[in-house]
Amino acid sequence: MDVRHLGASIGGRRCPARRCSTCTDISEPAKQELGRLARIRIYRAGETVIAEQDEIVFVGTVLSGVLRLQKTLHDGRQQIVGLLVPGDMVGRVFSSNSHVAIEAAADTTLCCYSRGNFEILLGRFPELEHRMLVAMSHELDAAQDWMLLLATQNVTERVATFLLLMRRASPSDLPVMTRISHVVEVPISRKDMAAYLGTTVESISRSIQQMVRSGVIRIIDPQHIEVVHASRLIDLSGHDPSEFDPPRTDIRRAG
Amino acid sequence: MDVRHLGASIGGRRCPARRCSTCTDISEPAKQELGRLARIRIYRAGETVIAEQDEIVFVGTVLSGVLRLQKTLHDGRQQIVGLLVPGDMVGRVFSSNSHVAIEAAADTTLCCYSRGNFEILLGRFPELEHRMLVAMSHELDAAQDWMLLLATQNVTERVATFLLLMRRASPSDLPVMTRISHVVEVPISRKDMAAYLGTTVESISRSIQQMVRSGVIRIIDPQHIEVVHASRLIDLSGHDPSEFDPPRTDIRRAG
DNA sequence: CGAGGACTTGAGCCAGTTCAACTCATGTGG
DNA sequence: CCACATGAGTTGAACTGGCTCAAGTCCTCG
């Protein structure tokens, strides 16, 4: 593992993450302690953060980039069971071994804590453990949403749903022009999309090109897709419009 | 909702569940408080415990029976995203509305607590909240296992996996003879199996009958299947044998 | 006994996979 | 600077696992 450990200890207040889930909305003492323990880790696209079955030695938060949570059947078939984007928690507390491989789907920066130390903090600050519980509850909801998608929806519906999720997940600090033109940033490759949506790159490509031909979207480049006709994209997704239209509801990215 | 509320308050120690996840291994004061709040609820097969989107007014534990956690797309397609068997937690703390419908897949008895009261207890007894976190962590693992199954495995593999999970989940207090003869109790209908495995009753039936013809299993009645050749069933499941053979590992039922 | 539900079986069809070929962008070394 | 390899994405064509529709059996229950 060719990982650069930047030893810089950063205080919670100086945490470079815009929406670092760990460090916001917690009491000052907890924030102080977290800051003392925090370490930055940087991964290049493709690098493994934690292998499947590996011991979990640290937990943390994604500051930038994308991680994929991936499971592999013993014959090699793989499935991405979650994507972690900035603000998401990495790793699992009170679980010695990971049940998923965690890999960088793009260049990624993490804010990490040793799992042991973090768990001690959880014991000292029940508010932190409470936040973990709420976060995990959301992850479980997202996982259940994804099960419904994988089990019942066709490829076009999956792709449409994915694009809508990416649109909602796209950072609110993007240039305003980008937002009104409805450009969705797709942070992962077609291959990862296929592994996440439970299909193949070919099927992904066909669905996307079909949407292009029917004028629903426009491809700027493979990672940037303009949503020309949002309501038709929502129709294609097979979901209730209220799940994607503003006001924001509680459907979340699987993770 | 035609639910009988038996007002009987039961102390944790007298909890009729053999492996009530809430009431075991916790401190005496917490147990006392839980006992004061506990109420028994009984549902007939097919009854709805909590509808999708409904407010969650209580949480609890399954004492007997099976609940299905079910999601419905707005066009009617449905998927069971989890089964709750005795010992499993029902409901979600710190979440006002359910994102799944919870229905009795068989006659079911629950040990319930008002959500509000239970959440207050969680605040007073961090050990309880810690248990919730660990339980939810296991549920999330199971959900991710199930995503892999739904996205990558064929129907025969899904059915084999399901039978193996049922075999492991079968209560250890079954008659000894039943255990050595490897009779798996299937607590749900083919229709629910299909909704859980993301397929149809017809495909379920064909896979099961194929296993019968090849001598892997024997059907005693639709709800009782004898595993004649466990290692071949494990082969069919497409999983690593270590996941199902004793010693018990940490693959769990999706929930 | 008849109705209804659960399960099984058969036959045809189709969405999506597989395999193969192609374009295009990027990078590498001579 | 070009030749070439490599990887990502797209497109075409054929194949197939599982779905759909339809018709059966068996069991339970009123």
Task: Tell me the number of helical segments of chain A per DSSP (H or I, 4 or more residues long).
Answer: 8
**N-to-C terminal Cα separation of chain A, in Å?**
24 Å
Provide the low-confidence segments of chain A as ranges.
1-14, 247-255
Topology, number of strands of chain A: 12
Instruction: Supply Rg of chain A.
Output: 19 Å
Order of helices and strands of chain A: EHEEEEEEEEHHHHEHHEEH
Strand arrangement in the largest pleated sheet of chain A: 1-2-9-4-7
What class would the helix/strand composition of chain A place it in? alpha+beta
Assembly level: homodimer
Largest interface: pair, residues per side: A-B, 45 and 46 residues
Mean pLDDT of chain A: 87
Main sheet record of chain A? 5 strands, antiparallel
Estimate the helix proportion of chain A, in percent.
25-40%
Strand residues, percent of chain A: 15-25%
The global form of chain A is globular
